[in-house]
Amino acid sequence: MRNTAKITAAVLTAGALTLGLTACGSDQDAASDTSGPLVVAATPVPHAEVLTYVKDHLAEKAGLDLEVKEFTDYVTPNTATEDGSVTANYFQTEPYLEDFNKKNGTHLVSVASVHLEPLGLYSEKTDKADGLKDGATIAVPNDTVTEARALQLLAANGLITLKDGAGTSATTADITANPKNLKFKELEAAQTPRSLKDVDAAVINGNYALEADLKPAEDALVLESPENNPNVNLLVVKEGSEDDPRVKKLADLLTSDEVRKFIEDTYDGSVIPSF
């Protein structure tokens, strides 16, 4: 069993985004105390699993006291890192991080690139992307960056065409051709696997696919290519914590040969080391 503290998405209902940016002094003091354990926020799969492997097999020898806190959403880990409740997080991509900082005035920076989770299109109604019926409904994540990434995936596989220049902020308004008259249902990313019974297909983040017992390398109708893919998952801290010796130790461990082997052996191509 993992030795972690699990925080559910219900935290958001308490106004995590607002409250998280105005943390109490004790949290800030805890984050600045480099003599204590390094507390890292992570989504459960694969991030907390990778961190737990580090904690159980590598951290003690490296002199690192590591504590892992699990979150099930994509907002609270960043607000907790910004307010000092945790020192680091491990769950997000560079485009998502940049967008989050811009929209929320946070000061978060990457210290290591660890792995890629290819985004995939899944369905319980068809086993081929071109088997989607006319007028089919596809669920997509509703955050700006991941929705754009989902649309780019569909475009790369010929299901839609996006206007030139549509990038990490692409929306359905940027669709210039839609030969199957696809409809789109925007959902919080964590909800997309649960939508599969209600829609014709869903674009699902790799971590949520794994949590739903999907095997991206086997079950996805189409999957992002890892080649030149900017959506690698990062170890992130608040600006100013990059030189924390505990953070440096964790960054080294997360990009070690041991972790590479753990990722390759555990996830069989559904999670790909990026170092």
UniProtKB/TrEMBL annotation:
Main location: membrane
Keyword tags: Lipoprotein, Membrane, Palmitate, Signal
CDD domains attached to this UniProt entry: PBP2_lipoprotein_Tp32
This protein's record includes keyword Cytoplasm: no
Gene3D superfamilies linked: Periplasmic binding protein-like II
InterPro entries: Lipoprotein_NlpA
SUPFAM superfamilies cross-referenced by the UniProt entry: Periplasmic binding protein-like II (SSF53850)
Pfam families: Lipoprotein_9
Membrane topology value: Lipid-anchor
Subcellular location: Membrane
Extent of the signal sequence: 1-23
Superkingdom of origin: Bacteria
Family: Belongs to the nlpA lipoprotein family.
Protein known as: Lipoprotein
Species of the source: Streptomyces flavalbus
Taxonomic path: Bacteria, Bacillati, Actinomycetota, Actinomycetes, Kitasatosporales
